[in-house]
Design goal:
4-stranded antiparallel beta sheet, 44% helix, 97 residues, MTH1187/YkoF-like, alpha+beta, MTH1187 family thiamine-binding protein, 4 strands
C-alpha cells in the first residue's frame, strides 16, 4: 500500500516547516520507501507498518503543537511493491511517446 499524507500543526503561526520536518524525520527513520514533495509525504509498505509510521509522525507534531490536521490518501493494492517508482515510471513512459 501507498499512503500519501500531510501533517499540519495548527495554532503555531504561518511558519510550520520546523514542525513538518519532525514528521518527515519519523518517516525517513522508518526505513520504508518514501518520497516528500511540497504538499505530501508518501510512504509504502504493509498496512500496519505504514499506519504506525503515520501515527508516529502525527505524534511528533502533536508533541509541539496544540492542534494537528491530518490529510491521508491510501492506495491499497495487495501484491504490488515498488509502487512509488513504478507508477511514476508508467506515466513518464506515456509522456515520452
Amino acid at each position: 500500500m501507498i499512503v500519501a499524507f500531510s501533517v499540519t500543526p495548527l495554532g503555531v503561526g504561518e511558519d510550520v516547516g520546523e514542525y513538518v520536518a519532525d514528521a518527515v524525520r519519523v518517516v525517513r527513520e522508518s526505513g520504508l520507501p518514501h518520497r516528500t514533495d511540497a504538499m505530501f509525504t508518501s510512504v509504502e509498505g504493509e498496512w500496519d507498518e505504514v499506519m504506525a509510521v503515520v501515527k508516529r509522525a502525527v505524534a511528533a507534531v502533536e508533541a509541539r503543537a496544540p492542534r494537528v490536521s491530518l490529510v491521508l490518501k491510501a492506495d491499497i493494492r495487495p501484491g504490488v511493491t515498488d509502487g512509488l517508482t513504478s507508477k511514476v515510471a508508467t506515466v513518464e513512459r506515456y509522456l515520452s511517446e
